[in-house]
Design brief:
mainly alpha; binds heme C
Length: about 140
């Protein structure tokens, strides 16, 4: 399952055919320190969500659903950053098979396959980073 999810992810990045996507293709799960929120965002998220997190990354065009603008999460939630929901979303905890798949990878599975014990730390660091870039 993890391997399947991951190959779909790489295929999407390849479809974008940009320099950034090719770099990711060469090093699919580039190792990034678990506490390094900005570094992980750059390596794992920017292909879809864009370097500025506006939802305009090079792989976005290959997706059926537009990647969310991650700078306006609080704005969409009455000015409060919904940390618990965002962490669950990144990890992929609320996905139920009956609701089908989503375009965004389940990062919990991918991080676990890379380094088992760092999932909570990684998800927290990513959430903290997103919280820091809210407009
Ligand atoms: C393959 C493309 C892709 C990658 C890579 C990706 N995302 Fe997403 N992301 C999406 C899409 C598409 C949506 C919108 C899904 C929807 O609306 O159903 C989304 C939605 C989100 C949301 C929900 C925003 C909200 O307001 O509810 C968050 C948070 C998020 N992504 C964070 C991340 C983080 C953090 C990473 C990197 C660890 C990441 N994404 C990597 C495609 C991607």
């Amino acid at each position: 399952m993890t391997r399947f999810t991951f190959s779909v992810f790489v295929a999407l990045l390849l479809a974008a055919g940009t320099a950034q996507a090719q770099a990711i293709d060469k090093a699919p799960m580039k190792r990034t320190a678990a506490y390094d929120g900005p570094g992980m965002y750059h390596n794992y998220c920017s292909a879809c969500h864009g370097l500025g997190a506006l939802g305009d990354g090079p792989a976005a065009k290959a997706l059926t659903k537009a990647p969310a603008d991650l700078t306006r999460i609080s704005a969409r939630n009455g000015g409060t950053f919904p940390e618990t929901r965002i962490k669950r979303y990144i990890e992929g905890l609320d996905e139920v098979a009956a609701h089908g798949s989503r375009d965004m990878p389940m990062w919990g599975e991918l991080f676990r396959s890379m380094e088992r014990d760092t999932v909570p730390l990684r998800v927290q660091a990513l959430s903290d980073f997103l919280k820091s870039i809210q407009k």
